[in-house]
Write a structure and sequence with these properties.
five-stranded mixed beta sheet; alpha+beta; five-stranded antiparallel beta sheet; 7 helices; 25% strand
Length: 304
């Protein structure tokens, strides 16, 4: 379904409510909001182009970015919802929360287990952003040999709703050959404002003289998991801002590519000459693709 403004631009209807279906997972914000959940736009408070307030059939109200949902015809809404739910069965977006949790563990092991040690990770808190702490086993071993309770720990945060702190930590391990061991992820603490919590913890640790002086990064501190948990208990934790534009969780780019390649497609990547952008070409199997001179092209800005 499409609505256009007087200038011919695609927009949301700001006069009449529209039926929508979720295409991103929003269960971080409440139960009953998996991919396929149904709701209605609230036209009076939509800006018409980037976001809309949504009243879900579950009774929850959230402000969503436009690409978190799709508009559907009222008469076909249930069929579209059921199709989306079926497509996501036995994935981390399964409508059954227990199946989704199990599949998420498998997803983490598949995409991140080769790079990160997660067997002793403590996961706590509630929110769509995540404070994280990681170290290396040899740093803990060295502290133990010296009789110290503290060791060097990287304390940062992520507000990526798809792969969160685990994805952020993985992005810092650019090349396996450059590290003698896998990072040990100590803590993932969920919160509604990761920057606010991170700032408080950094400030408290700096006041104690805990910053690692010779570290190439500014977020390494001499601390421990136990001390970080005590420090978080002393911090001011933010609530979900009522005007936050929500995106929800979706597949990562790596998952998208894996799915395409599993279907026989090939991925071609290269830099766009003279631009800070990457060209991504997707070539589908000949028997399924329509004849064309060039493969489909998508561009991702290097500045995003």
């Amino acid at each position: 379904m499409h609505t256009y403004d007087s200038g011919g631009r695609l927009c949301l209807d700001i006069e009449n409510r529209e039926r929508i279906v979720l295409v991103h997972d929003l269960r971080t914000y409440g139960e009953g909001l998996p991919v396929g959940a149904l709701g209605w736009t609230i036209p009076e408070t939509s800006d018409g182009y980037t976001f809309a307030d949504i009243m879900f059939d579950t009774g929850q109200k959230l402000r969503l970015k436009q690409y978190a949902f799709e508009r559907v015809a009222v008469e076909s809404a249930s069929a579209v919802a059921n199709e989306l739910i079926a497509q996501n069965r036995n994935t981390r977006f399964d409508a059954d929360p227990f199946v989704a949790a199990s599949c998420r563990e498998d997803w983490i092991a598949k995409y991140y287990g080769e790079y990160l040690t997660l067997s002793e990770t403590i996961v706590k808190g509630v929110g769509d952003q995540e404070l994280y702490a990681f170290t290396f086993p040899s740093l803990i071993e060295l502290a133990t040999l010296k009789g110290d309770e503290l060791y060097a720990v990287k304390v940062g945060f992520s507000k990526n709703s798809s792969d969160g702190a685990i994805g952020r930590i993985r992005s810092q391990i650019l090349e396996k050959a450059g590290f003698p061991e896998k990072p040990n992820v100590l803590l993932v603490f969920r919160t509604w404002d990761g920057r606010h919590l991170e700032t408080q913890i950094h400030k408290r640790l700096r006041s104690l003289g805990r910053r690692v002086p010779d570290s190439l990064g500014r977020e390494w501190f001499m601390t421990s998991t136990a001390e970080l948990l005590r420090t978080i208990d002393e911090c001011d934790l933010a609530d979900l801002p009522p005007d936050r534009l929500i995106t929800g969780a979706d597949e990562t780019l790596e998952e998208d590519f894996a799915g395409l390649m599993a279907g026989g497609a090939t991925i071609e990547m290269g830099m766009v000459p003279g631009e800070a952008a990457v060209s991504i070409g997707i070539r589908y199997p000949k028997e399924e693709a329509e004849p064309c001179d060039e493969p489909e092209r998508k561009r991702r800005s290097g500045l995003d």
